[in-house]
Each structure stands twice: as C-alpha cells, then as structure tokens.
Specification:
The protein has 138 residues and is mainly α. The protein contains two helices and no strands.
Length: 138
C-alpha cells in the first residue's frame, strides 16, 4: 500500500503561514496599544506632579502661569493619546478577528487531514489483516 499523502498539504501550509502572519500582525497591534497605554500612564503621573508643584510656595505668578500652560499641553497630549488608543484598540480588534479567521481556516484543514489519516490507517490495517489471512490460509 502506498504512503499516506494529503492532497491539500500545500493549501494547509499556506493557511499555516497566513495564521502566523496574522498572529504577528496581532502582536504588533497589541504592542502599539500597550505603548500608548504606557505613555498615558507616564503622562498621568506627570500631570499629577505638575498639579502638586503648581502652587509651591517658592513659585511666583509667572511660574504658576507657566505651570498652567504646561498642564494645558499635558491635557492636549492626553487627549491625543486617548484618540490614538481608541484607534489602536480598533486595530487590535480587527487583527484579532483576522487571526481568529485564519486560525479557524487552518484548523478545518488540520481536522480534515487528521480524518483522512485515520481513514488511511484503518484501510492499511484492513490490508494488513487481509495479507496475513492470505498467508495463513491453507
């Protein structure tokens, strides 16, 4: 009996490759979102620090006004980062959906290959039993 061969092996290899590519894209999207979230945390700490220093006893009116401008810039930066975070979350969701689709497609072919392999094994066992029966028959 000939060796097992899965006729859709090349298609399966392409689907495995696509799954890896979408997994990498998902990782990049999650990494970008994490970086934005990290920057937001740093910015929040900086806003808190600037707010505490604003009314420091050694500061004059110009220093307070300078701090106000700095806090305003930090708030604008925070707004921008929040918008970027929302866009990055959308990209993560899209990348996750693509990865799940690619994974599902690959799993379908994996299961089909496994089923065909089991059928091949059963057929091979039948052939082996038939050969043994033919040898031991008088």
């Amino acid at each position: 009996m000939k060796r097992f061969s899965f006729k859709l092996e090349k298609v399966l290899a392409l689907r495995v490759h696509r799954e890896r590519e979408t997994e990498i894209a998902l990782g990049r999207a999650v990494g970008a979102l994490s970086l934005i979230e990290h920057n937001l945390e740093i910015l929040t700490r900086e806003q808190h620090k600037a707010g505490e220093e604003r009314f420091s006893p050694e500061y004059g009116v110009t220093d307070i006004l300078t701090h106000d401008l700095y806090i305003r810039r930090l708030n604008e930066t925070q707004d921008r980062l929040l918008q970027e975070a929302a866009a990055a979350e959308l990209k993560v969701e899209e990348a996750r959906d693509e990865y799940l689709d690619a994974s599902r497609d690959r799993k379908v072919l994996d299961k089909l290959k496994e089923k065909r392999q089991q059928e091949y094994q059963k057929e091979r066992e039948k052939e082996d039993i038939k050969t043994i029966d033919d040898i031991y028959r008088p």
